[in-house]
Write a structure and sequence with these properties.
Blueprint: E1 2-8, H1 23-36, E2 41-46, H2 50-60, E3 68-69, H3 87-99, H4 111-128, E4 133-138, H5 140-150, H6 153-159, H7 163-166, E5 176-181, E6 186-193
Parallel strand pairs: 1-4, 2-3, 2-4
Antiparallel strand pairs: 1-5, 5-6
Length: 202
């Protein structure tokens, strides 16, 4: 059975486009690396966006692993994908795609398609790395897109009673969501855990 740690990237710089990690984001990534350093992680994947790659590289250093980029881990849409789009316009487009999973934004994927490509990535990686523990550094939106795509709403409501409405706020930076895949079905073991970041508060 393959075990996946789905990690949202660390805090990013406040800028349009392919933003780098902020200093706080790098600290979060180091804390995540320390938390996972004793786990028998065999493979490390990342979204091609810079904030995710930088997070993955810092985590991978604790395991002396190389990092493999996979475009299927990219967010459904990134601010800057659509030239000239203001942040408020981006937020409006994002919210529309969140509440209407079939909506295809002018640049990017629908929430349904993003969840589907995450599922395909995980299935492929699981068959490639049987019984391994695998890290995938990605984005909050596509993590919830995958969960909405794969798990019954009643199960998701146990995580948060307003899961669908609140999903864009449920995955903090460098949180860890753990999923197992037994070759047939996915099992959600942990959701958006941040205990390893508590020491950074205050």
């Amino acid at each position: 059975m393959a075990v996946f740690y789905l990690i949202r990237h660390g805090e990013k710089e406040e800028m349009i486009g392919d933003a780098a990690l902020s200093l706080a984001g790098r600290v979060q990534a180091y804390a995540t690396a320390r938390y996972l350093q004793d786990r028998p992680i065999k493979s490390m994947y990342t979204s091609p966006l810079r904030r995710a790659k930088e997070t993955a590289i810092l985590i991978a250093s604790a395991h002396e692993l190389s990092v493999v980029e996979d475009i299927r881990l990219r967010e459904r849409v990134n601010w800057g994908d659509l030239p000239g789009q203001s942040f408020m316009e981006f937020v409006g487009m994002w919210e529309r795609s969140t509440f209407d999973p079939e909506y295809i934004p002018p640049a990017g994927d629908s929430a349904r398609k993003a969840g589907e490509r995450m599922k395909l990535f995980l299935r492929e990686a699981a068959h490639k790395h049987l019984r391994d523990e695998i890290v995938a550094v990605t984005h909050g939106g596509i993590i919830t897109d995958f969960l909405v795509h794969m798990f019954p709403l009643e199960q998701l409501k146990q995580l948060h009673p307003e899961f669908l409405a609140m999903q864009s706020r449920l995955i903090p930076e460098c949180s860890i969501t753990m999923v197992r895949f037994d070759g047939v079905q996915f099992v959600l073991e942990q959701f958006a855990r941040i205990e390893h970041l508590v020491c950074l508060e205050g």
